[in-house]
Amino acid sequence: MSDDWEARVADLWERLDAMGREEFVAAMQALAAERGPDDPDALFEVGGAHDSTGFTAEAVGYYERAVAAGLAGVRRRRVSIQLASSLRETGHPERALAMLAEERERGSDAYDDALAMCEALTLAKLGRDREGLAVALTALAPHLPRYQRSTVNYARGLVGLDPLG
User: Fold this and answer.
1) Is 155 helix (H, G, I), strand (E, B) or coil?
2) pTM for the complete prediction?
3) pLDDT of the residue at 164
């Protein structure tokens, strides 16, 4: 993978807020075209461009193609979060929740809290607000200066689990 291409993708993302929606997507598609129609990283970035500009339904197909093409590394973790979010927002929260559970089983990394955020929102979309709040509080707990144990215990209690278990 070209460092130059990655730098240009990063630069384009930096300019997102200064560009129009269609202009941004077109610019990302032009960068992706340099990599070919089946490049998983390019497909992921085009999916993200659609997603970040409100073309959420269009993003789903790009994300799915990126995974099918063998997306790897940190983008693989990110695509699970972004695809689940897109599925949630396009009327498929059950599928999103299953995808997030599968991703959690893959292991732990710096995106664990983002995964929890997406899971919490998906549970809320499904009307399971208490479970969503419990997930969010559990993810938040390690970042608190104090009260970590209490926060996790309260979160467990929200979903009917023994707070001290």
Assistant:
1) helix
2) 0.90
3) 72
